[in-house]
Known about the structure:
The protein has a seven-stranded mixed sheet with strand order 16-15-14-17-18-20-19, with helices on both faces. It has a six-stranded mixed sheet with strand order 2-6-5-4-1-3. The chain has a five-stranded mixed sheet with strand order 7-8-9-10-11. A hairpin with a 2-residue loop joins strand 8 and strand 9 (about 120-125). It is globular and about 65 Å long. By secondary structure, it is α/β, with parallel strands linked by helices. The longest helix is centred in the C-terminal third of the chain and has 18 residues, at about 310-330. About 30% of the residues lie in helices and about 30% in strands.
Amino acid sequence: MKAIKLRAGKERSLLRRHPWVFEGSIASGKADAGETVRIDAQDGSFLAWGAYSPASQIRVRAWSFEQTERVDAALFVRRIARAVALRARLAIASDALRLVHGEADGLPGLIVDRYGDTLSAQFLGAGVERWKGPIADALLVATGCTRLYERSDASVRELEGLPSATGWLRRSEDDDGATERTIREHGWQLKVDVAEGHKTGYYLDQRDNRLRFMQLVRQFGCQRVLNCYSYTGGFSVAALAGGAQQVTSVDSSGPALARASEHVVLNGFDAARHEALDADVNATLRRYIELGASFDAIVLDPPKFAPTAAHAERAARAYKDINRLAFKLLVPGGLLFTFSCSGGVDASLFHKIVAGAGLDAGVDGYLLQRLEAAPDHPTTVTFPEGEYLKGLAILKQ
């Protein structure tokens, strides 16, 4: 077994069971991509077993902090079975959910979502890439599914020195290979394509926030709703379910907007109550202000503006601008659902950005609720970096 020795004082994070070892923390030792290594403190004492990644700034990701635990196929069987069992206890109101959430489930770099009878997985680290076969087998055993699609096409693969990889990993001989599935969520129906959709196919992390939006739209009687960065219209369906009379979905993807319009009809709503606008969100918000338009509720769910803390300053300006424009478009008493999924912007900074946007817009608001990812996307106490999605529900004064 190859060993990695850390520089003096760099063992503290591993002693707190944080799973990452950065390149600059290593004094000596190296291995092949994904190879299991022993991680030692400067004095030679054992700290963890981890997966080595020669191309990444995160040079080692810890598998286990127990010296007697072997990193073999059985470890992945145990970890995956534990993750699936946890989700079964959460009583998720959907047949689509996250089954494995990377570091939070002791499987760094592995994301697995279930869409009905189909699993969709991302192998985002050198370690899980090396163990892909045993992991795939363990997933089918733990879930009873026979269909597993790989969506390892996220940009983070490049940082690991790994090429993009997509396609079926497992399916039966008589399987038709269809990648589209219709899922249920809080009584709604939504179509997901695991081959073409964003991430693994859909934004399951917003499941409970869509339900909460529906409830608040109904509670406050919001009639005119603007859903920005709408993708396939999950929040738009939620708004209509909450009683909104007119919903506008804005996105820069024509196919996503077509699916959003399809979802409106699929869930029994009048197509005339929904407008799909293929346009830039920032420019659209400015145009609405020029036209003197106003809305009772606005959703801002943009893509990742700051993947790391190094991008936070530039991202802060972008977040502030769209929130400032949204505040101006909301009627007094209007509802703002605003989000950031940027790892480089934490919840405290995001709150400050939105507060600054309100000041620039000359308005204040009541903070109704802090929003986060659904519970099948857990954050652990030893890995706070896992808390990537943060949001605010604000009632404009």
